[in-house]
């Protein structure tokens, strides 16, 4: 089990919702945490709140839009200057916007790739790094489709595929870095109200009742429950390439088939 005392973590989308919960559980377990978010006001307020609760200088906020390569790189350098190292990197920032779908891809998928490559470059043993762990936040919609949000679904499938491929690369090439994904069902944060917003859902607003019925099948989780899942993926040294599915009736590591199950067809 990885001990978190003295480790340095980075969490994107940390100003509210799941990111805030992830940052807090890492602080509670002894890590120092760099908070990254596009929302400067909420981020700075959270920095003050966390430093008061967990000790001065345990947390620092960096304003970053994860769709900007430059902002991400600049912030990473500043984090290294302040904290000296990065051991844990949680790519959590994500949005739902089916109308501005290229923006959604740039944040939800490209943002995860940007953060992961920055972290990997620093952590990889072949670069003289100390190893570490990366956790990418996908969704249950990265394992099965959410009809109302095809672009969001595509980005989350992308996060799962990217995480699994890179985890395999890390194992084969011995990077010394573990890369895992989280796939929670609905979680009580401001994001779940998106299904009712024409601005975010656009042409798929007619499917709101379909999402509502899915929410009855998968009742909302609390941020604190999902945060325990992050802690498991960070601490358990045996987990690389793991996808943790989380639902109200239980959490579990997803078993992916070694062979593709298929029904034969005549060609
Ligand atoms: N709430 C839910 O039901 C579920 C959420 N997720 C995923 O969890 C992650 C976090 O979502 P929530 O906390 O629910 O959402 P949220 O909307 O409450 O928080 C998202 C945070 O990300 C920040 N953010 C947005 N765009 C950004 C950008 N370009 N650069 C940096 N920060 C940015 C926001 O300012 C906000 O602080 C997302 O990746 C989401 O897809 C996964 C499954 C379920
Ligand atoms: C519109 C609000 C979205 C909030 C953010 C989010 O990512 C929430 C996802 C929640 C659930 C997605 C579920 C998708 C499920 C289906 O594809 C289903 O077939 C998966 C089956 C899993 C099972 O074991 O039953």
Percent helix, as a range, is 40-55%
Strand order of the largest sheet: 3-2-1-4-5-6-7-8
Give the helix tally.
Answer: 8
User: What is the distance, rounded to the nearest whole angstrom, between the alpha carbons of the first and last residues?
Assistant: 51 Å
What is the string of helix and strand elements? Answer: EHEHEHEHEHEHHHEE
Anisotropy-based shape: globular
Number of strands: 8
- On the 0 to 100 scale, the average pLDDT is 98
Summarize the biggest pleated sheet.
8 strands, mixed
List of distinct ligands in this structure: 1,4-dihydronicotinamide adenine dinucleotide, the ligand CCCCCC(=O)/C=C/C=C\C=C\C=C\[C@@H](O)[C@@H](O)CCCC(=O)O
Structural class: alpha/beta
Specify the oligomeric state.
single chain
List low-pLDDT spans. none
Radius of gyration: 18 Å
Strand content: 15-25%
Descriptive notes:
By secondary structure, the chain is of the alpha/beta class. 43% of the residues lie in helices and 16% in strands. It is built from eight helices and eight strands. The chain has helices spanning 17-28, 40-54, 69-83, 101-123, 150-173, 198-201, 208-217, 223-235, and strands at 8-12, 32-37, 59-63, 88-91, 132-137, 177-184, 243-247, 250-253. The protein has an eight-stranded mixed beta sheet with strand order 3-2-1-4-5-6-7-8, with helices on both faces. A hairpin with a 2-residue loop joins β7 and β8. α1 packs across α8, α3 runs parallel beside α4 and α4 packs parallel to α5 (150-173). The longest helix has 24 residues, at 150-173. The radius of gyration is 18 Å and the shape is globular. The model has no long low-confidence stretch (mean pLDDT 98). It binds 1,4-dihydronicotinamide adenine dinucleotide and the ligand CCCCCC(=O)/C=C/C=C\C=C\C=C\[C@@H](O)[C@@H](O)CCCC(=O)O. It holds the Pfam family adh_short. It catalyses: prostaglandin E2 + NAD(+) = 15-oxoprostaglandin E2 + NADH + H(+); prostaglandin E1 + NAD(+) = 15-oxoprostaglandin E1 + NADH + H(+); resolvin D2 + NAD(+) = 7-oxoresolvin D2 + NADH + H(+); resolvin D2 + NAD(+) = 16-oxoresolvin D2 + NADH + H(+). It comes from Pygocentrus nattereri.
């Amino acid at each position: 089990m990885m001990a978190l005392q003295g480790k340095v973590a980075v969490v994107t989308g940390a100003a509210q919702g799941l990111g805030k919960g992830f940052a807090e559980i890492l602080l509670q377990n002894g890590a120092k945490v760099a908070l990254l978010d596009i929302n400067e006001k909420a981020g700075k307020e959270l920095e003050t709140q966390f430093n008061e609760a967990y000790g001065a200088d345990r947390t620092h906020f960096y304003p970053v839009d994860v769709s900007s390569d430059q902002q991400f790189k600049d912030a990473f350098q500043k984090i290294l200057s302040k904290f000296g190292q990065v051991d844990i990197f949680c790519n959590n920032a994500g949005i739902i916007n089916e109308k501005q779908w290229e923006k959604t891809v740039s944040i939800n998928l490209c943002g995860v790739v940007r953060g992961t490559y920055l972290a990997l470059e620093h952590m990889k043993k072949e670069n003289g790094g100390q190893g570490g762990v990366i956790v990418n936040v996908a969704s249950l919609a990265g394992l099965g489709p959410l009809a109302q949000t095809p672009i969001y679904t595509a980005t989350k499938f992308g996060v799962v595929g990217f995480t699994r491929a890179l985890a395999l690369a890390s194992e084969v090439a011995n990077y010394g870095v573990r890369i895992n994904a989280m796939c929670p069902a609905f979680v009580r944060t401001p994001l779940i109200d998106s299904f009712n917003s024409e601005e975010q859902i656009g042409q798929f607003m007619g499917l709101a009742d379909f999402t509502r019925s899915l929410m009855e099948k998968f009742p909302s989780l609390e941020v604190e429950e999902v945060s325990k899942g992050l802690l498991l993926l960070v601490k358990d040294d045996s987990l690389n390439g793991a996808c943790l599915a989380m639902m109200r009736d239980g959490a579990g590591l997803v078993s992916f088939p070694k062979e593709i199950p298929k029904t034969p067809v005549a060609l």
